[in-house]
Amino acid sequence: MVAVAILAAGRGTRMKSRLPKVLHHLSGQSLVERVLQCASVVQPKRQLVIVGYGSELVQQSLAHLPEVEFVEQTEQLGTGHAVQQVMPHLQGFSGSFLVLNGDVPLLRPQTLISLLQTHQENGNAATILTAQMPDAKGYGRVFCDGHNLVTQIVEDRDCTPAQRQNRRVNAGIYCFDWDQLMQVLPQLQTNNEQKEYYLTDAVNYLSPVMAVDVDDYQEILGINDRKQLATAHDILQTRIKESWMMAGVTFIDPDSVTVDDTVTLSPDVVIEPQTHLRGQTVIEAGSRIGPGSLIENSQIGENVTVLFSVVSDSVVQANSRIGPYAHIRGHAEVGQNCRIGNFVELKKAQLGDRTNAAHLSYLGDATIGTQVNVGAGTITANYDGFKKHQTQIGDRTKTGSNSVLVAPVKIGQDVTIAAGSTITEDVPDNCLVVARARQVIKPDWRPQAQQTNPEQG
Ligand code: UD1
Ligand code: CA
Questions:
Q1: Between β-strands 344-351 and 361-368, what pairing exists: parallel, antiparallel or unpaired?
Q2: Is residue 38 part of a domain?
Q3: How far apart are CA 339 and CA 329, in angstroms?
Q4: The CATH number of the domain where 292 resides is what?
Q5: Helix H or strand E segment including 407
Q6: Active site (catalytic) residues
Q7: Does 303 share its domain with 166?
Q8: Which of helix, strand or coil describes residue 395?
Q9: Is residue 79 lining ligand 1, measured as CB closer than 6 Å?
Q10: Does the residue 145 lie in any domain?
Q11: Is the Cβ–Cβ distance between 306 and 295 less than 8 Å?
Q12: To test the ligand 1 pocket, which listed residue (6, 21, 79) has its Cβ within 8 A of the most ligand atoms?
């Protein structure tokens, strides 16, 4: 049986942030979400997150994960103290107990699996993940005998200059035998520079404790400040983009593109420069996104192009052409073979197949049929200052340039709306509707010279 505890109670002072450190985001997920996701690979029976600073915020942010339990550490007296708080919650538990630092977000699931395997196969009291770090500054140094058995872990600030030369560092990722750890947790002392209870001191009381080096030191980079956050972002982005390239996605100038790892792409998708794909976005085969586009929480069908546009919380079906300069948002749905672009905004609008809105429009709270031509400058006036209202437009209808459709209003099928009309009443099928003042021509008319007032001189 496996239980997992994630240390997430610290403030993260070096972030200089009001937000608890573990809630800072990295490519679409918070640090703590990332760590939890990684931990899920070992199918833990229990998942405990130790919270303290900003406890409510952390709990809210994980409310979508019902299997996660929270353990309060009201005072942050160190990583050992944090794990002590777990004891009453794991009464009667027996088995492997994984501890992960909430600020080490780049760990690969496979690494955690190997750590657990090594731990169980060797019957260790504890197994700790280590790395040979090019720049070990800030990390605890791990000292071993010739058989990878740990003799001591010394925090950077507690190291002698000679100890500081050791580049083998503690990742902050441990596997303990719970029964044995429980015996020694109460014995931890605070005789160190920070006067804290260090979890790393538990190794002094346990035996055998084995160290396992991770292959790629980047996996265990801890986030303590914004510089490290940016470095982690770069590493993660490279990982994400390279794995999509291996899966058949083309990136033109990948350095200028960001992709959250919650995004799903298909083979033969082409991502052009300056494009950002975020959240629960799915892009189907053959689509070309960018240059200069942002797609967030949206589904893009096959062979769609999106050029210099923003699509959020929306759906675009196959073969449609979006942009340049379209904004599709708020649960809009664009059918197949549509054309939306040149300064067009869609908000909560459903458009049927082969419908075009090609120039300068706002379509909000609208249901629009198939093969509709939305003329340049057509606006749905959906807001009366208090409420939003619906507009409906039937199949094959054409709205003239600069039409204003004052909602609530329903326009039938095969209607032609004359340019410049302001439509305030429902329109039946199969008709021409003209709703504007007639043009008046006054023959032989010239502007009159203004009469001067003699008194004013
Ligand atoms: C810790 C390790 C260090 C290791 C490094 C790896 C200790 C004593 N040191 O140092 O050996 O190289 O991680 O990144 O464990 N936390 C709590 N409650 C507390 C204190 C901390 O929950 O009372 C949490 C923090 O929120 C954070 C994690 O524990 O997620 C690590 O704390 P941090 O202060 O960043 O430890 P480091 O100094 O980085
Ligand atoms: Ca840290």
A1: parallel
A2: yes
A3: 16
A4: 2.160.10.10
A5: none
A6: 359
A7: no
A8: coil
A9: yes
A10: yes
A11: yes
A12: 79
Ligand approaching nearest to the C-alpha of 217: 1
Residues 275 and 412 in one domain: yes
Which residue among 173, 203, 220 closes a domain?
220
pLDDT digits (tens, 9 = 90+) for 258-293: 999 999 999 999 999 999 999 999 999 999 999 999
How far is ligand 1, taken at its centre, from the CA of residue 79, in Å?
6
Is the minimum distance from the CB of 100 to ligand 1 under 6 angstroms?
no
**Do the beta carbons of residue 407 and residue 348 sit within 8 Å?**
no
**Could you give the number of structural domains in the chain?**
2
CB-neighbour burial class of residue 331 (10 A; exposed 0-12, middle 13-18, buried 19+): middle
Is 222 touching ligand 1 by the criterion CB < 6 Å? yes
Q: Is residue 455 part of a domain?
A: no
At 449, is the pLDDT very low, low, confident or very high (cuts 50, 70, 90)?
Answer: confident
Q: What percent of the chain has pLDDT over 70?
A: 98
Quote the CA–CA distance of 186 and 426 in Å, as a whole number: 77
pLDDT tens digit sequence for 353-363: 999 999 999 99
76 Cα nearest atom in ligand 1: 23
pLDDT grade for 437, boundaries at 50, 70 and 90: very high
Question: The CATH number of the domain where 184 resides is what?
Answer: 3.90.550.10
Who's near 8: CB < 8 A, 6+ residues apart? 20, 22, 32, 49, 50, 51, 52, 58, 102
